[in-house]
Each structure stands twice: as structure tokens, then as C-alpha cells.
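Question (not urgent): is this output format expected?
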Amino acid sequence: MNNDVGKKNILFGLVYFLTTLGLGMFLANKGQAGDPEWSQSTAKHLLAMAHSHGNLEALLNIIFGALICRIADPQSTLTKAASILLIVGAAFHSGTLYLAGAGLDFAMNFTLLGAVSTVLGVAAMVPIVSRGIGNNESS
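Got this back:
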């Protein structure tokens, strides 16, 4: 079954994972410079959180995108909602941490939206996966 809904999550997750890998290399480079001011800076801590949360949210999108492709009904409103929520969740959770770490402090106003979207997206995947596993077992 051709499922473009899940493919969007996989593509987003892969691209987002590349950005988090790049951020990790940036952080490692800055850390090796040994600047004590940088090591204690708010920007460093925000970017470190963006790196760790971004990795997780990228992998969530890749894994859930693959599950959507494999076992979900692509026409289901719940499937489409879960897909969107997972992408929005990553962009507005760890994505806002990236922006705040770059000095755009207003972005922190959207972090809660991202966190809630991620939680709702993961919660929406529970019945999707449950139904999909049940359908595959009866085949």
C-alpha cells in the first residue's frame, strides 16, 4: 500500500536528524575550544537540549513514519492527525530550543505547543498501531 502520510514523517525525521547531528558537531567543537564563558552560557544549555530532544523527536518521526507506512490506514483522520502532530511536535519543541539558543528568545513561547503536540502524536499512535497489528495478525 502506498502511504505518503508516513513517508513525510520519515523524510522529515531524516532531515531533522541530520540537523541534530550538525548541532552535535558544533557543540563538540565549541566544547573543545575550552571557553569557560561558553560552557556556562544559557545558549550552550539550550542548544544541548535542542540536540538531545531533536535526536529523539527525529527518531520518533522515522519510526512512527515507518509504522504508519507499514500498518496504518492512510485515509484515516487519526493517522493524518498523528503524522502532523509528530512533525509539529518536533518543530515546535526542540526546534524552538534551537531558535532560543541562537538568541531568538521569543521562540520559547512555542515550546509547550511542541511538547503537547508530541505527546498527542505519540498517544494517537497507540490505537493506530493496535489496529494495524490486529489487522496484520488476521491476514
